[in-house]
Structure formats: structure tokens, C-alpha cells
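Two proteins, back to back. First:
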Amino acid sequence: MTNLRERIHPPLRGDEADQLYGFLDYHRATLQRKAAGLDAAGLAQTLQPSSMTLGGMLKHLAFVEDNWFSLFLHGHERAAPWRDVDWKADPDWDWHSAASDDPKALRALHDDAVVRSRELAAGVGLDTLSVRRLHGVDQPVTLRWIVLHMIEEYARHNGHADLIRESIDGVVGE
């Protein structure tokens, strides 16, 4: 297992699981790199007209990790801090609440969620069906689908992270 902030290119060869997890870990590390070295003000900065922040992305993706690998795949109850949130009052609480969080705490929340996700996926076959069903179609999905969805989720938000980070201090690219 690699350091969470060490970005290693996905393997060019290997079995399907190695390549899927390689791409997911690459995108996880990319987000961490985009948020690295920023203080609370930097993590709370937006790029108009969006209200997205890098801190919000860290917290949102920590929630998404827990949601898919713990709650959805295995059917576990929500963990802290997610279980105590009134999601009906603020469906975007993960994004909004990050502005008042300590940068170290945000990074740790994301790191911990990634570690839990890796542990929850370890030894589970890619064809294993989720315990919960996908909204709207009332069907379980495979772990393969979850991993592919997570790659898509990180890739999309990493594009946002590129723009936000460049607007903060000019840091661009990889």
C-alpha cells in the first residue's frame, strides 16, 4: 500500500483489479496534491460562479468513499460524522460545513475514509453485488461498478480542483 499522498501512475499491465484500484488511487492522490499546503482560507476559496472549495471536495469525497464502500457495498451504518448530519435540512452539508473545519482535520477525514474503503474492498471480488440497491433502478451493483463510479467521481472533481488551485496560487498541472 502506498502513502495516501504519493501519486503513482496506474499500472500499464496487470489484472483488472490492479488496474482499477491503480486508477482510483491515482485520482485520490491527485486530489490530496491539489489541496496540499493550503491553509483554511485556501481550502475555503471558491472560483466564481461556483461555490465549490478544495476543503469541500476533501470532505465530500470522504463522504462518498464511506457511502459507497461502507454503507452501499456492505450495508454498514453511517459512521461519524455522517450519521449525525441532518441531510434533509442540508443535502450538501459535506460541501458547506468544510469551510469551518481545520485543514488538518479535513485531510485526515479524507485519508481515513480512503483507508477504510481500501480495507472494505480488500479481498472482495469485483463481481460481488452491493447490499444496497442503486436508487431509481432498485438494483444492486457490483464492486466493479462502485470502483468505476469512484474513478469518475474523483476525475470530475479533480478537474474542478485544478481550476480552483490555479486561481488560489497559480499552481497548475500535475
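And the second protein:
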Amino acid sequence: MRGALIEEFRGEIKVGRLPDPECPPHGAIVKVEACGVCRSDHHSWCGHDPDVVLPHVMGHEFAGVVAEVGSETSHIKVGDRVTAPFILGCGQCADCTSGNATICAHQDVMGFTDWGAFAELLAIPNADFNLVPLPEDMDFATAAGMGCRVTTSYRALTDRLGLQPSEWLAVHGCGGVGLAAIQIAKALDARVIAIDLNEDALELAKSFGAELALNVKSTDTVGEAIRDMTGGGAHASIDALGIAATYENSIRGLRKLGRHVQVGMPVKDPVVDLSLLELVYSRQISIMGSRGIAPHGFKGLMDLATQKTIDLSSLITKTIGLSEVEASLTAMDNFAAPGVTVITDMQG
């Protein structure tokens, strides 16, 4: 198969022939038709993720067609159009069977612990549990663009934050995760304030439905500015980036009884000095994390997409060939690439 291989962190991403994956007895082989290029891939390429062992193939936001099934796979069939969460559960433990596959103790993580979808073929373990059928009218690029960013945002807003109509949601970081969160929040009839330092990203956020926008370069007290602009603070807030500044700004911009959800991966585990008494105890703030989504969680999001309540294709700002992955990841060094980039040509 053709694939993109990294042999050293931040080194050349070599595109060429690689061994075809073997089909697990309980799994499937998927012919990859499209794959998103995510900031998490940038973390992997830079060596920030301890799960990544070189040589390695990244990629975890795929859509494709089942090309082969294992002898123990019963429900998934060759020819099925599918995607999957990037956290692949065992499907049998108490966490998986209770709907919480994202915390499965036996999980495989596509593109991180296992080789991923920056390749023509992808092996998926426990295929009957992990693979998710695609709606017939959803094209592969849109499904790949939905990837971890949109699915993670959807779970963070609906399951973790329990976002309600008319509540203010503060979105810190208007890349793929943040823009997805804005669309989903608007579909839930919430109000959105977008926060970023890139004016182009903020303009894109407003086109997606953000009612207010705040450029962090314009103030030294971001939290106070958010509370002023929203009449007391956001009811809920999402850190879609994962650095110390966005986490702190998210907490400080909440009103009393506000809820924060951490979605952006905190690279190198930054330490933030915040007052437990003032910000958590006295104001009764809730702080939670959200990583990925379980297979059953796709349905609600796909319903919004098929009902045209959200437009997933509008998140895609660039399509590329496989050989352009390195340039796309390099562009993420300065957080300067709003929207979602999707590989749609595995031969290009």
C-alpha cells in the first residue's frame, strides 16, 4: 500500500510503499478514501505523544470502504461505507458495554498506539463494535472532516457540558474543534462567543454563527472581557487548543456555576496557577475533560448533518494529496490554519 511514514520526530514524512496491514480475526481492513489532518497529528509528528513509537503512520480521521473482514467479524461486510472513532474499544469490558468506550482500559488508539489512516489501507480491530456506517448521502471527505474534531466537540457539548438553549458558550481556539463547537452550539440554540488571536479565524467563527468575537491581543484580562461581553460570564466554556493560556482564560471567563470542558490536548502537561478557593470553591465551577466519542455517539451528530441542521462540509477549508501532509503539519506550527484540511487523494 501507499502511505506516509515518519522515521524521526519533525523529520521528513516519506510517502511511498509500505507493507499492507494484516486483517485481525475480529477486525476489518478499510480502503481509506479520505482522512483529516488534525492538530493531534501535529503533536504526534513533533514527538509530544508518548504513545507514538517510530517508525509510524499517523492519521485518525478517516472514511472509507471495507475491503476485507476477519473470520470472527459477523456484522460488518465488504463494501460497507464506514468511519470509526479514533479510540477503538475492546467492545467487551464494562466501560465499553456501558457506552464509555473512550475510557476502555484495553483501547487501541488509531494513528497513535497503532498505525493510522495516512495510508491506502487501515486495520480496525473489533470491527463489529468500532466501525460506524456512513449515511448514503454523506461523501467521504465530509465524513473524514467530521473526524475526531467534530465528534469530540459534539460529545463535549452535549454529553459533558449538557449545553442548553440560550446559554453562553465560550469557544477558546477557533480551529477545527472550535468551529465545529460553534456550529453544534448554534444547532442547540445556544449563544457563542469566539476567542482567538487570529483575526481570520475569528471572521470564520462569526460566519459559522458566533454572536461575539474577542481577539485576545486586544486585552490583558481575557476572562474579565468575556464576563463583561456576556453579561456575567459564559455558562459553559470549551478549551479547544490545550495550552495554559486558553485553559486559564476559559476558567476565568465563566460565571458562577459555570462548566469548563478540556478538549484540546495539553501538550507537555502545562501547569496553571489558579485559585482553588476563588475560582472553583466559591464560584462553584465544574471542570471536566472530554476525549473522543464512543461509536454509538455518532448517531446524534449524523442526524444533525443529514437533517441539514449543521453543515459539516463547510468546515473543510482545504483538500490535499497524501504527499502534502508534511506541509500541512508544518503550517500548524503557528496556529495559522483555520478550518479543516482533508486528504482526498491517496495517490497525490
